[in-house]
Design a protein that fits this description.
This protein is mainly α.
């Protein structure tokens, strides 16, 4: 009621005033809850499209349905499936679970050799999450599925985490990535290319920010952390055991430039592990000491173990999509969460067993060590 010169405040009883106050408090509490409900998967989240459930059961149909094309003209299909920071996927079986299963089916299902459409789906999934979601806003239930996709394409995630890929395409066949001139030859997509296999490209012309965002987002979940941690260590073992006695890739011609290839690979390994470890440290900084212990325990339980390179040079080349599935050896909980120790121990064992020349061994160990330490500093100041 308006209060004016000839108006009086109505005569309201004490009980009436208490009732009004209670209503105000309830409305205020409800308003405060809206952001929390939204972030937790409340009224503002969205379910996955109805078609996702059937796609999750049929990998080949899923690939056809979600392929964004080489020009990415149909990337909206993946974006619709994944939602966004403003309209995230709901938790549970009708949201992140069915969307995640459909994505894994499309990008890596049935253990198929990666095709161009499959690799393009992987590209679209990673770039969409990396660009549409903030690092801390990726739905937790979606993370293990995204980690499985990156693990299936670990050779590509490893390559592009450094941001050195000078390409704007979403995918490439191994044969198309071969280069050769009068000075050198090699393959920019894969250290050890497998005939007919497609590779996803997770960078945009020297920029790995979207991929880095995804890796760090996934590293905050112990299950997805373990999947990526396992996959990168498996890749390092796979890479080392195929190097020759000069610690270079046998198929790379032009020995003047060959050592650069080994350096780039080891720098990428250090950077990927550093990204995982920095996110793990963030948990310590944001929470209680016990939170980090619980995280490490859960990650250790989800991990397959530790990784070792073969004691002799391996001359066969498996499809890159199978790298993360290589067998692991039992690991000790004490050193499991020390990423620096894990990669240097793997490297040192390989050097000792293969009798790599001391000069080469020391040089490349320094490259790996510095890449890890420099990347830790970089990520901590971002």
């Amino acid at each position: 009621m308006e209060i004016g010169a000839n108006k009086r405040i109505p005569n309201i009883s004490r009980r009436g005033w208490l009732g009004i106050l209670a209503v105000i408090l309830v409305l205020g509490a409800a308003a405060a809850l809206v952001p929390a409900l939204t972030k937790a998967g409340g009224p503002s989240c969205q379910a996955a499209p109805a078609s996702a459930r059937e796609l999750a059961k049929d990998p080949r149909a899923a690939t056809r349905a979600l392929d964004p094309g080489q020009d990415l003209a149909r990337i909206g299909r993946v974006k619709k499936l994944l939602g966004s920071q403003e309209k995230p996927l709901c938790g549970g079986k009708d949201g992140v679970e069915v969307a995640g299963r459909a994505l894994v089916a499309a990008a890596a299902g049935e253990g198929r050799l990666h095709t161009m459409p499959m690799a393009r789906v992987a590209h679209a999934a990673v770039m969409t999450v990396g660009e549409e979601y903030g690092e801390t806003d990726v739905p937790d239930g979606l993370k293990p599925y995204l980690a499985r996709i990156l693990a299936a394409y670990i050779a590509d995630a490893h390559r592009d985490i450094t941001g050195t890929t000078h390409k704007t395409i979403p995918a490439v066949l191994s044969e198309e990535a071969h280069y050769e001139d009068m000075h050198e030859s090699g393959n920019w997509a894969a250290a050890y290319p497998y005939p007919g296999e497609a590779h996803a490209v997770f960078s945009r012309r020297w920029d790995s920010q979207a991929l880095t965002n995804v890796v760090r987002a996934l590293a905050s979940n112990p299950e997805s952390f373990a999947v990526l941690y396992d996959a990168e260590r498996a890749y390092l073992a796979y890479y080392l055991e195929r190097l020759d006695q000069d610690a270079v890739q046998p198929a790379v011609h032009g020995k003047k430039y060959a050592p650069l290839g080994t350096e780039l690979e080891l720098k990428a390994a250090g950077r990927m592990i550093a990204a995982l470890m920095t996110t793990r440290k963030d948990l310590w900084d944001r929470g209680e000491p016990g939170d980090l212990t619980a995280f490490d325990d859960a990650a250790f339980k989800a991990s397959k173990g530790a990784y070792r390179a073969a004691s002799h040079q391996i001359t066969t080349t498996p499809a890159a999509g199978t790298i993360a599935a290589r067998p692991a050896v039992s690991a000790h909980r004490k050193y499991f969460a020390d990423g620096h120790h894990q990669i240097l121990d793997l490297y040192d064992r390989w050097v000792d067993q293969r009798h790599i020349k001391p000069g080469d061994a020391e040089h490349y160990r320094l490259v790996l060590d510095e890449a890890y330490n420099d990347s830790r500093e970089l990520y901590e100041y971002e």
